[in-house]
Amino acid sequence: MSVYTELKESLTARPRSWLVTGVSGFIGSHLLETLLKLNQRVVGFDNFSTGYQRNLEHVKALVGLEAWERFQLHEGDIRDVELCRTASRGVDVVLHHAALGSVPRSLEDPRACHEINVTGFVNMLMAARETGVRRFVFASSSAVYGDAPELPKVEEKLGRPLSPYGASKWMNEIYAEVLCRADPPTFAGLRYFNVFGPRQDPNGAYAAVIPCWIASLLAHEPVFVNGDGETSRDFCYVENVVQANLLAAMTDTTDALNQTYNIAVGERTTLNELFELLRSRLAAQEPELATAKPTYRDFRAGDVRHSLADISKASRLLGFQPEFRIGQGLDLAMDWYLRDARASAKKNS
């Protein structure tokens, strides 16, 4: 039996109270879904600036009304100190995922990136301390590695950040280290590598690559690849991220506390390979897509060329074992991507 399986059984038998910030977002809503299915009590905190009420409605439909009654939503902004304190009272664990994501967005508006991702982070961390929270788990990012050339990425070897987003996530790690050095809560920073899965937004200028490309292919629109397509990423299915959060939240191993971890699969996929993975799956639904080709354009400012995680630290200290590789994750998520893309196309027609 895996560490994660044992943990889920333990949580079901002994429920805790959790705060999920950014609960209406992509990752936050998956954390909510899993926690409610495990009989936990969950407080959500969100201002819906990048998340959606429809994500919460989707979770409600999946978990049922009885489980949904264990969820309480606080609508508000993490830049409001008092609202952070209110949301944190009475919870055992904070899973902090409220942030202004996207490298391009941070380059366009670095001030907003700092206010939300850094000041808002400090507000939440201090609120957790002031209200007696036991553990503070937060979303960091592979963007903190910046221009570090080494592959795979190892937690101790950082480069210079290439975007305000990467800098903001690095500052989160620094603040957690400084503020939690002597006083609780203990923390875990999770450096996510290109997370994908259901409820990932395919729309807008900052949409993640997988849902964006699926929507474009289905609409028979150009699929734009930044650069030559040989840029590579370590794509991580969202259920692997949920596992990491729960393991980090509940570990009692002393050496595992107050650490940052790479959360990924440990496999590299180029954008050209990703396009083929998507095209082949969609062609089974729409055969005319079998001959679809990508459209190449200039490299995007702030992007790193290659990204690959060394996940041995998370495996050793947390018992993290990613259950889904990119192909498995795409197979699990494809029905949702198809439904969402077609519903969006119908709505806009």
In words, what does this structure look like?
With 349 residues, the chain is of the alpha/beta class. It has a domain at 3-193 and 237-264 and 304-323: Rossmann fold (3-Layer(aba) Sandwich), CATH 3.40.50. Helix content is 44%, strand content 15%. It has helices at residues 3-13, 26-37, 53-63, 65-68, 81-88, 103-108, 110-130, 164-179, 209-218, 238-250, 271-283, 312-318, 326-348; strands spanning 17-21, 41-46, 71-75, 93-96, 135-141, 186-192, 195-196, 224-226, 232-233, 236-237, 259-263, 269-270, 295-297. The strands form 4 sheets. A 7-stranded parallel beta sheet has the order 3-2-1-4-5-6-11, with helices on both faces. A two-stranded parallel sheet has the order 7-10. Helix 2 (26-37) packs across helix 10 (238-250), helix 5 crosses helix 7 and helix 9 (209-218) crosses helix 13 (326-348). The longest helix is centred in the last third of the chain and has 23 residues, at 326-348. The chain starts with a helix and ends with a helix. The mean pLDDT is 94.
Arithmetic mean of pLDDT? 94
Dominant shape = globular
Q: How are the strands of the largest sheet arranged?
A: 3-2-1-4-5-6-11
Low-confidence stretches: none
Helix run count: 13
**Overall SS class:** alpha/beta
Helical content class: 40-55%
Order of helices and strands: HEHEHHEHEHHEHEEHEEEHEEHEHH
CATH class placement of one domain: Alpha Beta
What is the number of beta strands? Answer: 13
Superfamily at the CATH H level of one domain? NAD(P)-binding Rossmann-like Domain
Biggest sheet features: 7 strands, parallel
Rg, Å, rounded: 19 Å
Named CATH topology of one domain: Rossmann fold
- The assembly state of the depicted protein chains is single chain
First-residue to last-residue Cα separation = 50 Å
- CATH architecture assignment name of one domain: 3-Layer(aba) Sandwich
What share of residues are in beta strands?
A: 15-25%
